[in-house]
Specification:
The complex is a heterodimer of chains A (216) and B (71).
Chain A: H1 10-15, H2 17-25, H3 28-53, H4 61-79, H5 89-109, H6 118-130, H7 136-152, H8 155-166, H9 171-178, H10 182-202, H11 207-214
Helix pairs in contact in A: 2-3, 3-4, 3-5, 4-5, 6-7, 6-8, 7-10, 8-10, 9-10
Chain B: H1 2-9, H2 18-33, H3 38-41, H4 45-51, H5 53-70
Classes of the chains: A mainly alpha (216), B mainly alpha (71).
Chain lengths: 216, 71
């Protein structure tokens, strides 16, 4: 059974590393104890994430933390064989709890909300271009990007880009609404951005200029 | 303004996928916290963290949690 207790320093985890896998892969009381211990660590990580993202607290957040820890535990137990020891076991385990808590927080924030219309995103882009103190070069770049979005992207690429970038819809929320995954949506966003950069380069807006336009 | 352009065009460098990012995230964070060259060890991670807001948040939280544990 791992000798690590909740809140222990990370370097203690190194010493008990083999015990985690052995205990969680085993049977009986030793396994049960290890699972309970791991769940406590996952709950700590979930609460940590909630504290970072919702410092003011709120109703139902403790339930959300527990649910995140539960779901992370299930994911970890099913992927235990994939742990290669590239990091400490606790670091590897924590990322599952942080992911679950982060996704649940984003979805909760958008629960019952309609996604903004694509037109709202276009208006936002137009507002940015019209900002009085906008540098001419940046405004021209935004205009070129707007044309490229309209003319070079597929309808799906366009709606994903507008939702994620212009309307600030979290990727996990959009994935849930569309019945897809974060990875699949990001691939669409990645391909759309690649097309936009290629189009700008074709128009003589060299990557260097594009980068300068992005500079703070 | 310039931040919007950056988010519209995304990183110019080759980047990992979200699944690859999650797979390597724990190692990347530990290397970084230890002061090693995490970007050389896991090429494409930094670009992805800049391009994907959700993975970027996961990274920030794991790094903060590990640093807190090591502190």
């Amino acid at each position: 059974m791992p000798a690590l207790t909740v809140g222990d320093r990370m370097d203690h985890a190194v010493a008990v590393e083999p015990d985690w896998i052995e205990a969680l892969s085993g049977e009986g009381a030793r396994r049960d104890e290890a699972v309970t211990h791991l769940h406590a660590l996952l709950l700590r990580a979930a609460r940590f994430e909630i504290g970072r993202r919702r410092p003011g607290g709120g109703a139902g957040l403790e339930d959300l933390a527990t649910q995140a820890a539960d779901d992370a535990l299930v994911a970890i137990m099913s992927k235990l064989h994939t742990f290669r020891g590239d990091s400490r076991f606790t670091t590897w385990a924590y990322k599952f709890a942080l992911l679950e808590a982060g996704v649940k927080l984003r979805r909760r924030a958008w629960q019952g909300r309609e996604l903004p219309l694509e037109e709202e995103g276009w208006e936002r882009l137009a507002d940015h271009r019209a900002t009085p103190d906008a540098e001419l070069e940046t405004a021209e770049l935004l205009g070129a990007v707007r044309d490229a979005i309209a003319q070079s992207l597929t309808p799906h690429q366009r709606s994903v880009l507008v939702a994620l970038v212009l309307n600030d819809v979290p990727i996990d929320v959009l994935a849930q609404r569309l019945g897809t995954t974060r990875g699949a949506l990001y691939k669409t966003l990645h391909d759309a951005r690649k097309r936009l950069r290629a189009r700008l380069a074709d128009e003589g807006l060299a990557p260097q200029l594009v980068r300068e336009g992005q500079a703070p | 303004m310039s931040d919007l352009l950056g988010r519209l065009l995304g990183p110019d460098d080759p980047e990992l996928t979200c699944d690859e990012c999650f797979e390597h995230l724990d190692r990347y964070v530990e290397l970084e916290v230890a002061g090693d060259d995490a970007d050389a060890a896991i090429p494409g991670m930094r670009a992805h963290l800049e391009g994907c807001a959700a993975c970027g948040e996961d990274y920030e939280s794991l790094a903060a949690l590990v640093r807190e544990g090591d502190g």
